[in-house]
Amino acid sequence: MSTLNDDFDRSLEELEPLQWNALRKLCHASVEFMSSNNENSVRIKAALLVILEQLDELLPLYNEIAKFASHFDFDEETPGNGYRSFLSMVDKCIIHSEQVCRQMYDQKDSMFSRTSHHMKEIEACSQLMVSLQTFFQYLKILYTWSTEVMSDGKLSLFITNHDAQEYLHWTENFNQYCFYGRCIGFQFCNSLKKVLKTVAFAMVSYSEIYYNNDTLLGRCTNSIKYLFDPEARARRIVNISRYADISFTQAFWFLNELEILSVVTPSLIINQLISIPPEELILPTLDGETISIPIPNSHIGKKPIHVRLLSSKRRLGMVGSGGIGGELHGLCDKLIIHSHGGGFVAQTSRSHEMYLHNWATTLGVPILSIDYSLAPEAPYPRALEEVLYAYAWALKHASTLLGSTAEKVIFVGDSAGGNLNLGATLKCLQLNIRRPDGIFMAYTPVFIDFIPSPSRLISLTDTLLPFGFLVRCMKSYVGADKKPTKENENGECAKSDTESFAEVSESDLIALALSPNGDGANGTQKLVSLPSDSTLNSVSLTEVDGIEGPKTQVESREYVSRFLNMYRNSGTASISSPVAENGSVSRNGNVSGQSDKSWSLFGWSLGRNKDVRQLDIKNGSWEEFICTIPKDLFISPYLAPDEMLAHIPPLKMLTVEFDPCLDDSVMFARKLRSLGNKVTLDILPDLPHGFLNFLHGSKEAMEGVELSARRIKELLEL
After folding, report:
1. What H or E segment, with its residue span, contains residue 655?
2. Which end of the chain is less congested by CB atoms within 10 angstroms, N or C?
3. Which residues are bridge partners to 310 per DSSP?
4. Which domain holds residue 606?
5. Pick from 623, 639, 661: which residue ends a domain?
């Protein structure tokens, strides 16, 4: 037994952190009072012993990774990378486990103690710790693979000397279930935990509707089950991540454009859709010549590009300002051009209106958000072509249509949108036309490939961007999977019948020039001004061998194996539902869909539908993700030559601690700084990828939106 004096003989890194020690003492105390005369107590005791064992095994791994994690940081003032994120995740796990154990211990003598509930909660914590220990074993391997030294003298976070096959095989060794069950959101701030649980419940419930191979009663029963059974929810999320096709990802990510959700978005004085026709567009080059901007034509031919103009002020010449009253402001000398996120496969400007409204109001600058075409129907380079063309169009028509002289233009984008903005900037350099004056991007991938990095492992724990979603989006965007989705399938991506667009051509410009504010013109000289509050209702321009895994002690392996089998082999179908987890075989042995009886009520099928989608959990495999992604600088701006990157305009990057794309941001910021670029990096704690859309549900998310506005303002004022 160690004494207090023994601690003075141990190095600082070997000392156990206070939170760890508190959890250890609590587990020992709880084990002592647990009786062995009922199953719940036996299982609680076993789970507590596993936690104690994991504390012993995790601490040396934790200390080992902590020694080198800081070597990958952008700078001392901006600590953050994938290694640090997993250290923080363990810290949050310890705190969460201590809270669960404390609650059980405090209620041990209470007649209202819920032993069964405590048993499930503590077992979930033990599984979480085992899984995190597995992650740490692989983080050690990644560090040994990190041999490339960057120009800043530090090691690279990207591992480019091992193939995708080896990396994808790793994923089969991780227990993902524990991150989506009772411990879901444990690593995030409190304000987002409920939000993430709601998102998770929405995902699994929607999957019952999308894979509609059951009766209405069966689907409703399963949805209710997910609400009260965290283990069933975890099984379903993992299965969705692994086996759902890209069309499900698209449909689910489009849900936030439902009309019923628009009530939480305040209205702006100008919220106008514009349809840009595919016409010849000539711009001056920097050397005094002129150049024709290529009309987007890849994959789906020439089509109009939809953009949305947002402004908190009615300005001279601004489309949509003619039919409304109020003060008419002069032209703004600034313009923000925004590209939305959505994994290159989903969402539109409307999906991102909530934070765009905040920025438009805070900054007082017109924002033009681009609704580029989506993969897989329109894979690379279609979206990039459209972003470049829309930017060029905005430069030419800013003063006559957008209420801005565009003396200063800032690119703004999140996730996939940030990637497209970077690609468009590189295209500007290539074409020798005016580049944007600054770039702000949030949680943006800059290296699109199946290469491992510490932060990319976070997607195996992520509710908003699960691993399967991430790799399917990459595969769809690079064109490896060009299977088109059905237009308006089930109405998820249907264009509203009441949608209003302002289609602007050269003749419109002449009319507008005669009456810049849209007022007082007569007859054909007046450009029709559409309502400023016209909104977008789900508009889509698409129709629509690795290495041996690390080992733990035999006792832990058996314990973990038992619970993994519980997850994998337990169906999510309720007793009243005749459909198994994969929705393919009923209890009486009949294949679903054989019955030709189908009854409907208000569009919902009360019987079985002949044409059903099925979540195939038998034939799916990570092997399907393997494809060759071109080493193209416009797909992966990180790969652009130094002489191009040196001319990237001032860049402000924002990312979060638990973002699968965190290492992309850190590496890109390090690379640009070494080339002498003006670059800043913010890494926000306790927030997930995509947090900008949760500003109304989380104080921390709102603070992140406000910080983003300040960074954009700094670019506007440079």
Report:
1. strand 651-658
2. N
3. 271, 367
4. 190-244+555-623
5. 623
